[in-house]
Backbone:
């Protein structure tokens, strides 16, 4: 642990990813006066950002600061030059995107996950995946959780990051990199709990959307959301035993804003399922994919049917179960 | 306790109040084949409902069933003829509306509160008020809580009532009166806890609205809502000690839908405060009053400044405190 030293002016940071969340993190961290190496896979995208100082595809109106920013298509070079490597790639694309990284490349790096979801290839938590695939030990790993909607972070709207790491020294150092006016941090040691909460909230947002699609509104949403909270608590106690208060932003807070926000992709997916579409039809209509779709499959395959709400979502997504019948089964369970 | 008998076909029920909530309850209970006596203060309103079979002011599109319904302007007669008396009047108007009731009038009646808030004249919980004012003992009292938005109940959208009573026999009987397809009930013995939760959620909805008015959006809402949940739990433990799981619809569930719904009057009031209006200006703009306005004053006068979020709302509503400065104080507290 002791051999990893971070100093504000010297610490070089890699951001791996090109989407809105990566763009927001780059903007924040460069503005905090750190040297950032930003890996952008596609050369045309890179040149476009270099030229326009904006990401033409995500957070299009955000000015990207260049005073200490280097763009590169060379993943290995970006990692080699950096001490802290932040991965901000949607979980289904993580594995294929970073195939060129070798085991030794991440030795003595601080690896930070800004990813919510299981790694879809290995079906592991992101922390487990980096350990399994690259020997990144828990003392060198941190996860950033939220809710931290990219656009709000980029616009410096009041945000509390939760930074979870077994190594508190590292959590504090990541905290220093991210903090500024209106951007605050909570420190946690509950890496797996925070990761599972970030996965489950997408599944529960699909459930909330299904109910809305079936025209079950506020009165039932209150019942369903509190049932989700209880299931979340039971699941975390089982899968990541330990003492935690889930009444914090990375647990219940993230669940609530995801499940209730009409902008949530997962809720929208659920809504369309509730309206009678299949998952495939919903994705065509949405023109995008929701992470809860993958999370649901992996979660139910790994942990079975003991979790009524997660199971319901899985059956509707993957087994063509009828949403109305499934919700009625759930309502029957909620009466006891 | 034993002398109060309820049988489905014979039980006569009074509903006291004329607003949307009273209208929904009357519709539900008449459709459940009970004889209902509905007290409507104003003779013209009564005649209008009698003629049109709809309430011209609230839930205007709901057909009111008349097969076992009697309307009356005579409060004492309505109560005299009934065994169960359901009060569904906004808390600020309760005391003045029922001045003609004498102490003896409610002896041997089952009194049901469908009211959220303190009685504003005595500053008591509704259960305490009926005891103080009319000698209604806890064994004859029940409170109905929710969330139970009137329009959803009237349209038989899936709803779980929470019926809290120290006397479980009475809770079960009220449950029988209200249940039907899509309308379910939870039984609770936590009368005071449910009443306080129904009061506090309106105060916290104002807080959530203030934040939105200050353009603090999803990322901060997650932090604020979880802080409200923690404050709710602490407050209930202090003011109504006992064992409860607040992860149920009458506690956290009701708080969430009230704090997040853009249709919530309390949230709207907070929003306008956040935008720099005074409470008086907000009420003029809204053309109505929010119950959290009264609740905040009574709560803070009775219980002091130990509850940071409730105190913040009180200072902004009644002491002209600056919302932006107050929220920043709260954010500072939330960092620890």
Residues:
């Amino acid at each position: 642990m002791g051999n990893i030293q971070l100093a504000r002016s010297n610490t070089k940071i890699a951001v791996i990813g090109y989407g809105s969340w990566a763009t927001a993190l780059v903007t924040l961290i460069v503005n905090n006066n750190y040297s950032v190496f930003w890996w952008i896979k596609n050369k045309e995208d890179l040149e476009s950002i270099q030229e326009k100082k904006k990401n033409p595809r995500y957070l299009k109106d955000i000015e990207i600061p260049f005073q200490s920013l280097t763009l590169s298509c060379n993943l290995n070079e970006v990692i080699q030059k950096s001490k802290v490597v932040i991965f901000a790639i949607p979980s289904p694309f993580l594995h294929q995107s970073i195939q060129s990284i070798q085991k030794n490349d991440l030795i003595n790096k601080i690896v930070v996950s800004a990813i919510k979801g299981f790694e879809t290839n290995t079906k592991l938590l992101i922390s487990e995946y980096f350990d399994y695939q690259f020997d990144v030990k828990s003392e060198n790993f941190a996860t950033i959780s939220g809710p931290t909607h990219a656009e709000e972070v980029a616009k410096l709207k009041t945000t509390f990051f939760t930074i979870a790491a077994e190594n508190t020294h590292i959590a504090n150092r990541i905290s220093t990199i991210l903090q500024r006016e209106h951007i605050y941090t909570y420190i946690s040691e509950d890496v797996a709990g925070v990761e599972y909460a970030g996965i489950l909230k997408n599944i529960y947002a699909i459930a909330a959307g299904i109910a809305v699609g079936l025209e079950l509104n506020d009165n039932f949403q209150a019942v369903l959301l509190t049932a989700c909270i209880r299931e979340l608590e039971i699941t975390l106690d089982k899968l990541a035993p330990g003492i935690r208060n889930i009444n914090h932003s990375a647990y219940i807070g993230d669940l609530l804003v995801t499940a209730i926000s009409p902008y949530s992709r997962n809720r929208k997916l659920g809504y369309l399922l509730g309206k009678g579409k299949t998952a495939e039809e919903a994705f065509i209509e949405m023109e995008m994919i929701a992470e809860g779709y993958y999370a649901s499959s992996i979660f139910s395959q790994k942990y079975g049917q003991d979790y009524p709400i997660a199971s319901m979502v899985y059956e509707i997504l993957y087994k063509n179960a009828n949403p109305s019948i499934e919700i009625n089964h759930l309502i029957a369970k909620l009466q006891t």
Summary: The longest strand of chain B covers residues 159-164. Chain B touches chain A at residues 146-149, 152-153, 157-160, 184, 215-223, 225-226, 229-230, 233, 245, 247-249, 251-254, 256-257, 260-261, 331, 334-335 (CB under 8 Å). The radius of gyration of chain B is 20 Å. The CA atoms of residues 85 and 113 of chain B lie 8 Å apart.
